[in-house]
From TrEMBL:
It comes from the Bacteria. CDD domains: SRPBCC_8 (cd07817). This is Putative membrane protein. It comes from Microcella alkalica. Residues 11-131 form the Coenzyme Q-binding protein COQ10 START domain. The lineage of its organism: Bacteria, Bacillati, Actinomycetota, Actinomycetes, Micrococcales.
Amino acid sequence: MTSTIHADVVVDVPVGVAYDQWTQFESFPDFLSGVDSVTQLDDTKLHWVVSVGGVEREFDAEITEQRPDEVIAWRSTEGELHSGRVVFTPESAESTRIDVEMAWEPSGFVEKVGAALNIDQAQVSSDLRDFKRLIEELGTPEGAWRGEVHGGTVTDRDSDLARETGFDERPSML
């Protein structure tokens, strides 16, 4: 049984601010409940540790599509299904709609019941409200990465602009 989740929120920051903060994957535990850690292995690879219904699980994911100020999409690379897409749409010069669509494969009784009762949907909606609070309080992103990913391949067309703005790269993964 695959669970599909749709949620959205409007944040009162420009699209570039919302997008740039979202590219700081290792900060996800600050607003995503159930996410214990995200380790960025390189520009397209992430290692997740999550707790769902009291059960810890780990998985690797790859970013399959990323266009600055527009979209970030990912999928798990092994194990159980986990994929998603986040779309950033300017509502005005100072506000942004963030639309999230995720699919995951619940396993075990607690996860399957939670998905059947749409508890996962409610949690993602709550997490988006937490992101809204976080980015509106910050006012500026904690970092940014302005490269692009198409089909899992990185193109860095915005690297000169990123260096000019001081957001050169994602944190080093030493």
